[in-house]
Design a protein that fits this description.
Chain A is an alpha/beta fold. Chain A is built from 3 helices and 6 strands. Chain B is mainly alpha-helical. Classes of the chains: A alpha/beta, B mainly alpha. The interface between A and B is large, with 82 and 83 residues. Strand 6 of chain A pairs parallel with strand 1 of chain B.
Chain lengths: 165, 122
């Protein structure tokens, strides 16, 4: 069976919901390309996702209620946060077909740690990233994208894995 | 996510996207893309299927090393174990995307955060 054509499907859904204009998805003919500057085994590899990954709220201590600032933009959390403490807050997934109980199905943090332990990559940065979906392409290009890049540089990231939910 | 990928790639840092919505990612255009033909919410493998998740993750790492130019897509090649009905149903009137209960829960968490922030706890 062919992949779902989400652009068509969401256009129909928008119209059904009564919107006049369908969402205009970003489109480019070309795409930038950068090569690894060194072998992958010498690279520090980062991770970012749009699954609204958060650190579980502990009502006892009220520690780590959430990790993001104001629920928009790019945010980070300590890379050594135990996987059990992570969860997704997103409602943007196919709730009829799947669930979000296993973080690694949409934010492969343990798979990344394994790659570091195996020596497939040199290591991971001290923080991992999340990013809220923003439907304004202009805001992404003036806000989220430059911030993510600045953090990659700050954290010495040589390559970035990106997992849209 | 694709826009951010392009921005980071243009600045010289290689990226690889692991994602399920092939048409959206390719419409935008990224350097490297592992396409998983799974429902939105499980782009990196089925929940609790660690072997499959490892295989998909390795494909992404391989692509960082192997891709020779932009718009390189690799198909993960796995089929969703419960069958393909989800493809027919997603974003239809039968299975509406908007879920009022989930939205209400999200708003309640947001309120929690605001309360804690007002109290100086975060």
């Amino acid at each position: 069976m062919e992949p779902v054509r989400y652009i068509d499907r969401t256009r129909d859904d928008y119209i059904r919901q009564g919107y006049e204009k369908p969402y205009e998805w970003a489109h480019f003919e070309d795409a930038p390309f950068a090569r690894l500057a060194k072998p992958l085994s010498e690279c520090r590899v980062g991770l970012i996702g749009t699954s609204e990954i958060a650190v579980r709220y502990d009502p006892e201590t009220e520690d780590n209620p959430v990790v993001e600032e104001d629920f928009r933009g790019v945010y980070g959390f300590a890379a050594d946060t135990p996987t059990e403490a992570l969860y997704s807050r997103t409602a943007s997934f196919d709730r009829f077909a799947t669930h979000l109980e296993d973080v690694n199905a949409y934010y492969p943090v343990d798979r990344l740690r394994e790659a570091a332990a195996d020596g497939r990559i040199a290591g991971i940065p001290d923080r991992l990233y999340g990013c809220y979906n923003n439907y304004s392409k202009r805001k992404v290009m003036t806000g989220e994208a430059p911030k993510a890049l600045a953090w990659c540089r700050e954290d010495g990231i040589d390559a970035l894995l990106m997992a849209p939910v | 996510m694709s826009l951010i990928s392009r921005h980071i790639e243009a600045a010289g840092i290689p990226t690889v996207v692991i994602g399920a919505a092939r048409d959206i990612v390719e419409h935008c255009g990224v350097a490297r893309y592992v396409f998983t033909d799974f429902p939105l919410g499980s782009p990196c493998g089925e929940p609790w299927n660690v072997d499959q998740q490892r295989a998909i993750f390795q494909m992404a790492l391989d692509l960082l090393e192997d891709a020779q130019g932009p718009r390189t897509t690799r198909e993960a090649g796995f089929r969703w174990s419960a069958g393909d009905d989800w493809k027919r149903l997603v974003f239809t009137a039968e299975q509406p995307w908007q879920d009022e209960a989930a939205y209400a829960q999200w708003m309640a968490r947001k309120e929690d955060y605001r309360r804690l922030r007002a109290a100086g706890r975060v």
